[in-house]
Write a structure and sequence with these properties.
The protein has 11 helices and 16 strands. The strands form 3 sheets. Strands 3, 5, 6, 7, 8, 15 and 16 form a 7-stranded mixed β-sheet that branches. It has 351 residues and is of the alpha/beta class. The structure holds NADPH dihydro-nicotinamide-adenine-dinucleotide phosphate and zinc ion. The site of NADPH dihydro-nicotinamide-adenine-dinucleotide phosphate (NDP) has 29 residues, from α1, α6 and β10.
Length: 351
């Protein structure tokens, strides 16, 4: 089968590999729609996960099952499914600890395009189908469905980790597709004033539509100054970091109130350390909580995302600005995530 792969750091191309087979609990799926992620860009062009050779990319897909193992109960060949970006080993001790995303070790629930071939292939393997796949509702569009493996749950997790209480002031730093879903998540959690930090108008418009009250343009001046001024020097109760670089984490610490929460969902692709500003962290005594997490995966999480869509709580299809028809457009779509043209939020490839 053919797959679109990371050949090495900075190198992309199509490769041929043997088609996967399903173990007794597993499934093999052919994609109907896939989406490239900024994380694919960090992986290939920044070597953020280390060097990988001939690894098929991609972790955002919906598809049709072509084979299931003998012990799979709830799915069969022909079913249309949403495939989470994170497919934990549900029989691991880390799951009992409450961290399926890290089942089997740090970030190990993230298998596609990390530890095994990803979804930009004619077929791909899904471990533990009953626990990781979700049935795609008949009336759901492919564009909406393919925002559920990663974009919706990552952004919403950013808001959950930020422990937003009703009426809290919130800042979301970075309003690409992930940050925009964090804006939507913050609204669901009950945010009061909601700052959205970005630059491109296409993203700012959707941020407003999703519920941001204030747009802060980081190219028009220091965001710390802008947000501290707008809040009369108080800062905000919660900050979600969904873009920028490690300096953005530092900005987040500066704009959080004492006792505030900083929730990082950004994939920090470069550098040895991340800077925590000493003074604004209260010389270590500010009670500002810095946390971060890999998106939760698995079937229940996908089913939660499906219900948020079916009952009109979120509209992730609004992120999709570019739709390509056919696998031959994979490289073009992926490179859009690298170049981030003015009119882009998120591309999708229909197959
Ligand atoms: P985008 O690149 O599309 O969006 C990044 C956003 O950050 C844009 O709004 C951009 O503004 C803004 N930005 C860039 N530089 C700065 C800066 N210096 N200060 C403030 N804002 C800035 O990324 P995505 O939304 O696709 O993804 C966001 C991050 O989430 C990525 O690092 C991705 O790898 C990660 N990720 C993490 C996951 C997890 O499980 N935790 C899962 C999926 C993704 P503009 O473009 O307008 O200039
Ligand atoms: Zn992703």
């Amino acid at each position: 089968m053919k797959g679109f792969a990371m050949l090495g750091i900075g190198k992309l191309g199509w490769i041929e590999k043997e088609a996967p087979t399903a173990g007794i609990f597993d499934a093999v799926v052919k994609p109907l729609a896939v989406a490239p992620c900024t994380s694919d860009i960090h992986t290939v062009f920044e070597g953020a996960l280390g060097d990988r050779h001939n690894l098929i990319l991609g972790h955002e897909a919906v598809g049709e099952i072509i084979e299931v193992g003998s012990e799979v109960k709830d799915f069969k060949a022909g079913d249309r499914v949403i495939v989470p970006a994170i497919t934990p080993d549900w029989r691991s001790i880390d799951v009992q600890r409450g961290y399926p995303a890290h089942s089997g070790g740090m970030l190990s629930g993230w298998k596609f395009s990390n530890f095994k071939d990803g979804v930009f292939a004619e077929q791909f393997h899904v471990n533990d189908a009953d626990m990781n796949l979700a049935h795609m509702p008949k009336n759901m569009s492919l564009e909406q469905a393919v925002m559920l493996p990663d974009m919706a749950p990552t952004g919403i997790q950013g808001a959950e980790l930020a422990e937003i209480q009703p009426g809290d002031s919130v800042a979301v730093i970075g309003i690409g597709p992930v940050g925009l879903m964090a804006v939507a998540g913050a609204v669901i959690q009950g945010a009061g004033r909601l700052f959205a930090v970005g630059n491109r108008p296409v993203c700012a418009d959707i941020a407003r539509e999703f519920g941001a009250s204030d747009i802060i343009d980081y190219k028009r001046g220091d965001i710390v100054e802008q947000i501290m001024k707008a809040t009369n020097g108080q800062g905000v109760d919660a900050v979600i970091v969904a873009g920028g670089d490690s300096g953005s984490l530092s900005d987040a610490v500066k704009i959080a109130k004492p006792g505030g929460t900083i929730s990082n969902i950004n994939y920090i692709g470069k550098g040895e350390n991340v800077p925590v500003p000493r003074i604004e962290w209260g010389c270590g005594m500010s009670h500002k909580d810095i946390r971060g997490g890999l998106v939760s995966g698995g079937r229940r999480r996908m089913e939660q995302m499906i219900d948020l869509c079916l009952y009109n709580r979120i509209r992730p299809e609004k992120l999709v600005t570019h739709v390509f028809d056919g696998f031959e457009n994979m490289e073009k779509a992926l490179l859009l995530m690298k170049d981030k043209p003015k009119d882009l939020i998120k591309p999708v490839v229909l197959i």
